[in-house]
Write the structure tokens for this entry.
Amino acid sequence: MIDRPQAISKPKAPVFRRGTNMIAVASGKGGVGKTWFSITLAHALTKMGKKVLLFDGDLGLANVDVQLGLMPKRDLNDVIRGRLSLDKVIQPYEEGGFDIIAGRSGQASLSALPSQRLSLLRNQLLEVSDSYDIVISDLGAGVDRTVRMLSATATRTLLITTDEPTSLTDAYAFIKLGNAAGMSKNISIVVNMSPSINEGEKTYRTLLRACENFLRLRPSLAGLIMQDPKVKETIRHQTPLLIRSPNTQAAEDVEQIAQFIWKSITDAKKKAINA
């Protein structure tokens, strides 16, 4: 997992207006539960009384609507094609109490947007965010141009990993590349599907040591989510965990992370006011 220190040229990071109420959810690789976590986090924050928008920013491999069992009439493709503005494709997910912007799965062109259109999408998302307490962007795996831009727009990026060696390696690569792009200070780690608290903390420490030794970074731990068979069951039934199995350990873990996130947003807003 660990590579040798390398001299990384740090390009000057683009200056974006950062949304103080925007959270990005990312991963170094697929299959770590990123979209499930994004949905459950949105639901947990809604249960805290917050007005939440879940944006499916996994351009090309969108599946928030699939996991929720929805068939949206309007989606991000309508925005990309210039047919509708972003606010016109917002749809309520009444069962969970939050709003969603659905993506369009299988559209390779969406994952390679021209810079101008990607910037327009980012700016519209910032405008839409003013109507919400919090906006959660479920980003694609990896650190491509789209992920970097949307992550840079958020006040915090939650990086999802598991204890699998490939997941840890890719999570470290995400942080390393993010550091080179100037977006490392706002990354926090979520260890998903952990067999136990001790194993989850061990996974985090492994990633932390790599970041300290080679990048001189200390990404914070947002939380641990215990392995729970109810999670697969809820995904299979296309129903959020906090509806189908709200009393499970995994549900409680995400609710604790929601508290951490809301504090991060509150702190970011205070910092912006005092700046």
Observations:
- The first strand starts at residue 19 and ends at 27.
- Confidence is low (pLDDT under 50) at residues 4-15.
- The CA atoms of residues 20 and 272 lie 8 Å apart.
- Strands lie at 19-27, 52-57, 91-93, 98-101, 134-141, 154-161, 187-194, 220-226.
